[in-house]
């Protein structure tokens, strides 16, 4: 991913394209199998989920992208989970579910 694309990816996720975020994204890219083929789909997923107060973020404690839910009802959470699972199946993405905070890590493409 070139510099301009890195900046654009961060901005589309709602992050400033500062040096710290660029370095974190670089680590995420290195740690995520098949990132290049997933990046546009990640942005589309983020855009879809945003209306449901769910976002793709840079994880604070792992070098992975995280799908963070900030939902207000069980019904919305169920819809979010369905969208995320369908997305992962369609694009062959490994999700790592975190039950303690109902979030997902994007582990990369499944071969």
Describe this structure in words.
This protein is α+β, with helices and mostly antiparallel strands and 111 residues long. The chain has one domain (3-109). Helices cover 51% and strands 21% of the residues. The chain has 4 helices and 4 strands, in the order αααββαββ. The protein has helices at residues 3-12, 19-31, 35-50, 74-91; strands spanning 54-58, 65-69, 93-98, 103-109. Strands 1-2-4-3 form a 4-stranded antiparallel sheet. Helix 3 packs antiparallel against helix 4 (74-91). The radius of gyration is 13 Å and the shape is globular.
Features of the shown structure:
single chain; 111 residues; alpha+beta; four-stranded antiparallel β-sheet; 4 helices; 4 strands; 21% strand
Describe the secondary-structure layout.
Blueprint: H1 3-12, H2 19-31, H3 35-50, E1 54-58, E2 65-69, H4 74-91, E3 93-98, E4 103-109
